[in-house]
Design brief:
This is DEAD/DEAH box helicase. The protein is an alpha/beta fold. The protein is built from 30 helices and 30 strands. The strands form 7 sheets. Strands 6-7-13-12-8-11-9-10 form an 8-stranded mixed sheet, with helices on both faces. A 7-stranded mixed sheet has the order 18-19-17-20-21-14-23. Strands 1, 2, 3, 4 and 5 form a 5-stranded mixed sheet that branches.
Length: 750
């Protein structure tokens, strides 16, 4: 059955509208990085939530969508207004960027909101999962007093004990750098060495050549940007400015020399971006000049452990899973990007048969165990809790709608064992987790990877006597594009044995599998009514995962020298066939291509491939050739360069005035402005006429080549960021010379 999608009429809440706009701008494949109702603590320790949260290479970003009155102190109570300010100030204090819109803006001026999203995030932002809910890495400081061999043994033992961050303290000249290089060599992973001065970078470079001659060593400082060598020695400043030149997981070992000199903000950008297996800080003192403890800073800002690492290190418990199939059909539940239509979903899920199945599963498999049931809504949680109570099970529903005092009592009673089952709607928002929880029921279908992981994390904390967490996935029937997440789909485990271990130490998982293969139950499952010989192969297809390794049509347009209208037409006419088509709303289908198709399409249609490495030169070449039937291109470039700021932006108002002044000056000198049909020749034009001319003719070609972008509602023209990053003062002088030559050629000696 084909997927249905949420129409604007039936799905017009501000939350749904923002999801739609986000997908329109960046593509639905980026949706998996968006967190809805993300929990955080304000400066007074009060639990709060962010409407939408994401993380890019610069840090965390909050999007707040409110009603018009919430932004107006004259229309809300003073307490509410001040509380809203406190929330925003707390976010900024904690390093968040905060962007806010009203729900009316989303409905009335959606194009403006999309324009602003591009301005804030860029045309193709690199997004990452926010790992704040995961445990911090374990770290340790030791002083370099022992012999070199003992120091290396110490580091090896730290890793065996689950530590992933180490600070080595030693005086200058004590051999700290050699220890770091030899330990990196012993680990054998690709290594990034960072220092805050050129001298230290070069010193590290030569030490690596001497102590680890078997691998290639490169430099990333000033004009030398080696990125393909096995070891990269770079300055912290150069790396921070060029994080987009690297993949987050391409280094396994990170060394920061003289790390007490770097700022906390620098640490945050480096340590939160690179997902290294081990980080080594070399320092003369474990404290910075401002008195802050270096290890605390490292652990706080470094990327958190992922779930698998946390389980292997014993920070979180292993997870087993039982799949419970329902007779519910989700195939016609409408979706909007990466979310189900809430009304459709609740209608499908809140049926007596499915709710009863939840209760019966508890009674059959885990009666008496502390269990959290994740539900789709407050009503759903209330209904399921009531069914549990009818069967004599102490159960309560809990959500943000429950008063704070009552909510705290329910959670306390659950922790004390006075309540056996919690039916939760938005418990995530409380930043709550329970070490005593033994079982999770995933009864809320979700297409959001972030929501599923957040739910899972609530039950994985360690507790005395707790050997594992049992997860029950309630599996509803869905189609390939609206299939919800489950343990097996999330962790790419195709083979299913009831109660099998999905997350755990590798040798434990292998032992588990060997028992099932022999038809034996693992000891942990002896009391469960399951059959060891039951086996199923699960279809793990996930279009969001597949799309991550493909090129969207939006991205294809940015990577080839063809107009978006041309690509649209070729796809519509069947000249170009996408490799995957994902219908994400009632009227939108997103198309994706395998990466190898780009050079093939360029060859077939005579396009040029645009990359970050060649885009500046292509821009320079286009300016140099300056093919034109009017004089507008060189005049436009000169006007733009005259008012371009360091970010590569110029106010279109300034460009318009500069552009018009060129032709007005020619008229004053008694020279023809342009051809007879030109608005400057005819006269009587307005600044708006000049703006339309610029955007329709000279600018359009630069936009088609992805060299420039127009932010309509911000009133600016932007040079592509990759060009700006590479553009030198000499390049700008050359561009002006190209323009002068082109104008002289066009007008002759007039």
């Amino acid at each position: 059955m084909p997927t249905k999608y949420a129409s604007n009429a039936g799905n017009s809440s501000a939350e749904e509208k923002f999801v739609q706009l986000f997908c329109d701008v960046f593509g639905p494949e980026k949706g998996q990085y968006v967190y809805l109702q993300f929990p955080f603590l304000d400066i007074y320790g009060k639990h709060r939530t962010i409407d939408f949260a994401i993380r890019d290479k610069e840090g965390k970003i909050a999007f707040e969508i409110d009603g018009n009155t919430w932004h107006n102190p004259a229309k809300v109570s003073e307490d509410k207004y001040l509380d809203d300010l406190l929330k925003q100030n707390s976010l900024i204090y904690d390093g968040w960027k905060v962007y806010r819109w009203t729900d009316a803006q989303l409905e009335k001026t959606p194009e403006r909101v999309k324009d602003e999203l591009v301005t804030f995030l860029g045309t193709s932002p690199a997004l990452f999962f926010i790992d704040d809910i995961m445990p911090e890495q374990k770290g340790k400081v030791f002083s370099l007093r022992e012999h070199q061999e003992e120091a290396l043994d110490n580091l090896k033992q730290m890793r065996m004990d689950g530590h992933t961050i180490a600070l080595v303290q030693g005086a200058t000249g004590s051999g700290k750098s050699a220890i770091g290089i030899l330990d990196a060599k012993a680990v054998g992973k690709r290594t990034l060495f960072l220092a805050h001065t050129k001298e230290l970078v070069l010193q590290g470079y030569h030490n690596f050549l001497k102590l680890w001659p078997e691998v290639s060593v490169g430099k990333y400082i000033e004009d030398e940007h080696d990125t393909d060598t096995y070891v990269v020695c770079g300055s912290i400043q150069s790396i921070v400015r060029n994080l987009d030149a690297f993949n987050a997981d391409e280094f396994g070992y990170l060394i920061i020399d003289e790390c007490h000199h770097a700022s906390a903000d620098t640490y945050k950008k480096i340590l939160s971006f690179f997902k290294t297996r081990f980080t080594l800080g070399l320092t003369a003192t474990p404290e910075r000049a401002d008195g802050e403890d270096l290890l605390d800073i490292f652990q706080h800002v470094a990327h958190k452990l992922d779930i698998q690492e946390a389980v292997e290190n014993g920070v979180l418990v292993p997870v087993r899973c039982i799949r419970v199939k329902t007779n519910i059909d989700l195939q016609d539940v409408r979706i909007n990007g990466f979310r189900y239509n809430s009304l459709d979903l609740e209608t499908k899920i809140m049926v007596p048969g499915r709710n009863q199945l939840i209760v019966d599963t508890y009674l059959e498999y885990v009666k008496g165990k502390s269990t959290v049931v994740f539900c789709t809504s407050v009503n759903h949680a209330n209904q399921v809790a009531n069914l549990f109570r009818q069967k004599g099970i102490r159960a309560e529903s809990i959500s943000g709608s429950v008063k704070t005092i009552e909510r705290k009592k329910i959670l306390r009673d659950y922790e004390n064992g006075d309540i056996s089952v919690l039916c939760a709607c938005d418990l995530l928002n409380e930043g709550w987790d329970s070490p005593h929880t033994e079982v999770l029921f995933m009864a809320r279908p979700t297409m959001s990877k972030t929501i599923y992981i957040q739910q899972l994390g609530r039950g994985m904390r360690t507790c005395d006597g707790k050997e594992y967490l049992m997860v029950f996935d309630f599996v509803d029937n869905a189609n390939m594009f609206n299939c919800p997440y489950s343990m097996h789909r999330l962790f790419h485990v195709a083979e299913y044995c009831p109660g099998g271990m999905i997350l755990g130490k590798k040798h434990d998982i292998q032992w588990d599998k060997s028992l099932f293969t022999k038809g034996e139950k693992p000891e942990a499952l002896v009391d469960f009514p399951i059959h060891a010989m039951d086996y199923e192969v699960i279809d793990l297809f996930n279009w969001q995962d597949k799309a991550q390794n493909m090129i969207s049509q939006l991205e294809l347009t940015r990577r080839v020298s063809a107009q978006s209208e041309t690509i649209d037409r070729y796809i519509r006419d069947g000249k170009i066939k996408p490799d995957m088509e994902v219908p994400i709303s009632e009227h939108r289908t997103f198309k994706y291509f395998e990466p190898h198709r780009i050079p093939q399409l360029c060859k077939e249609f005579g396009w040029k491939q645009i990359t970050s490495a060649n885009i500046k030169q292509m821009f320079m070449d286009m300016a140099k050739k300056m093919n034109m039937s009017y004089s507008y291109k060189p005049v436009f470039i000169k006007a733009f360069l005259e008012h371009m700021n360091e970010d590569g932006e110029a106010r279109i108002e300034d460009v318009v005035q500069e552009f018009a002044a060129f032709y007005e000056e020619r008229i004053e000198r008694g020279l023809p402005a342009e051809k007879k049909k030109c608005i400057f020749t005819k006269g009587g034009y307005t600044e708006k006429d000049v703006e339309r001319l610029i955007l329709a003719m000279p600018f359009k070609r630069f936009e088609d080549m992805n060299f420039m972008h127009h932010s309509k509602y911000m009133g600016v023209i932007q040079l592509d960021k990759q060009i700006v990053k590479q553009l030198t003062d000499d390049n700008i002088r050359e561009l002006r010379q190209y323009c002068d030559i082109a104008l002289e050629r066009y007008f002759g000696n007039q």
